[in-house]
Amino acid sequence: MSKPQRSSRRGEAAAAEPAPPQELRTGLVVSAHGRHVVVEDKDGQRWRCHARGKKSELVVGDRVDWAPSGDEGVVEHLHPRRSLLFRQDEWRTKSFAANLDGLLVLVASEPPFSESQLTRALIAARSAGLPVTIGLNKVDLPQAAQARARLAPYRAMGEEVVELSLKAQPEAAIALLTPRLAGRATLVLGPSGMGKSTLINLLVPKASASVGEISTALNSGRHTTTTTTWYWLGDRSTGTAIIDSPGFQEFGLRHIAAADLARLMPDIAAHLGNCRFYNCTHRQEPACGVVQAAEQGLISGARWRIYGELWAELGT
């Protein structure tokens, strides 16, 4: 084989060899904002990365393969998700997080919580195959009795409800939650005023500093309190993590078919199979087992009203 000929032009630089491809690394998305995400590598170091293309579908909790690029990184591949919790209204879809093991929904004795909002979160979680714990906070207040009564139908249909006093008895509250969080990735969900920030600060004393670091990495300081964030509780090897998501006022369920509502609401699903019509909507049809159960008080009035509202919303 003949030797490659040298350039005949004096002083001409030899053609540069292409740089070897960067070895892909596997990481965890711990925060996301627009096209940019923060990815944690196997050593716990966090990198500012961006996804290829103009739009990123990455969410907190995603497992990804990425390659360093200077002092940042490029996400090249998204691993299959085992779960994804999201909400969808008429205009857009908003993902909370991926690869979750459970959901902790915080409500409180004061201010009064929205049963419609709670029901929507439970339906979305059940659709995603995620178990839920309802945390009733501020049980030290006089309004606790009324809040317990409102949650009685949820206890009756098998939802787990734990009572907390995050400010009055923080140590007792953490002791109650710890075994329910151990070894799992749990999304904490709840509107403003329910005590979510108090809980996060109790579980993760350095949460504010961590959020600040992530915000700096994303160059989005003004979004410090509006970015979903993954926190490890203790050593990463335990697999125990909580994901803090910004508060919300609406929880769209446009990704749920109206015909699936009944089976996703346990107190209503308990009375399915006793209807005259196979395609019964369980609203006004004659000889409907669900309607009869509601008339007999076997389904709470509030839950029955919410079912009707959701059907009207999703059936259009």
Instruction: Choose one word for the global shape.
Output: globular
Distance between the termini: 74 Å
Spatial strand arrangement across the major sheet: 10-9-8-11-13-12
Question: What's the total number of strands?
Answer: 13
Q: Based on helices, strands and strand pairing, what is the structural class?
A: alpha/beta
Order of helices and strands: EEEEEEEEHEHEHEHHEEHHH
Which key features would you list for this structure?
Rossmann fold; alpha/beta; 3 domains; OB fold (Dihydrolipoamide Acetyltransferase, E2P); globular
Secondary structure layout plus pairing:
Elements: E1 25-33, E2 36-40, E3 46-51, E4 63-69, E5 72-78, E6 84-88, E7 93-98, E8 102-108, H1 115-127, E9 132-137, H2 144-156, E10 160-163, H3 170-181, E11 185-189, H4 196-203, H5 207-217, E12 229-232, E13 241-244, H6 266-269, H7 289-295, H8 301-314
Structural notes for this entry:
The structure is a single chain. With 316 residues, this protein is an alpha/beta fold. The protein has 3 domains: 54 residues, OB fold (Dihydrolipoamide Acetyltransferase, E2P) (Beta Barrel), CATH 2.40.50.140; 161 residues, Rossmann fold, CATH 3.40.50; 57 residues, Probable gtpase engc, domain 3 (Ribonucleotide Reductase Protein R1, domain 1). 26% of the residues lie in helices and 24% in strands. The protein contains 8 helices and 13 strands. The N and C termini lie far apart (74 Å). 32% of the residues are buried.
Please provide a brief summary of the model:
The chain is built from 8 helices and 13 strands. The chain has 316 residues and is of the alpha/beta class. The longest helix has 14 residues, at 301-314.
